[in-house]
Specification:
By secondary structure, the protein is of the alpha+beta class. It contains 7 helices and 10 strands.
Length: 257
Amino acid sequence: MQSLNEELQTVNAELQSKIDDYARVNNDMKNLLNSTDIATLFLDKDLNIRRFTPQATKIFKLIKTDIGRQLTDLVSDLIYPGLVEDAREVLKSLVFIKKEIPTKDKRWFSIRIMPYRTFEDRIDGLVITFFNITDMKQLEAQLHENDQMHQLILNSSSDVIVKLSSDCKIVEFNPAAEKFFGRKRKDAISQNFIQLFVPETKQKKTENEIQKLMKEKVDSKYEMQVIAAGDKVCELEWSVNVLLNSLQTEMILVSKK
């Protein structure tokens, strides 16, 4: 009897140790999910809620008692009528789906629906994550608006406006430039401005001077000999504006002809 009790105590101690290990792992996972600030839903193979992170309650009307409820029963702010259909498709194909979805209150989320794989590599449901990309979407909209305004100014200006990359390739070419040089924008974009519009005998000197202006990064005036429409060679004074961004230096040339 004493030997049996000792054996039971050993087994109980091992079992308690495994329970403690499981609790620590569970706590670590819970803290990891909460610290990422990513809304996440864990579903079983029948699309019932298995677990969710606190951040998910900012998208879905979820409370603790919703564990076990069907995904189809949940009310959310997402404008995503195909969520359930996409979830079923991922379960069927085992290929994740990623979409950018808006909400009724003007937020945006990047949503990933992925198979839930066990350690035995068995599919046991789905994991759906929701990354808040509202700031990125607002920035995209602002950049798009700025680009539209930029194009409006370019197209309406009577000045010849040419934008060059750091290697003197044409990035922008407005209608006034099309008319002056006798070249369509689509044929000029990405071409080397110097090779296209500067007399051959002046090309090397002009290239060196433009590169110097870019390195100095100072707005200035610059006179350049160019070949206009009809192969007419003329001297133009340009207002030079050097633009700096994280990728490269660019230059805008503006001339009133």
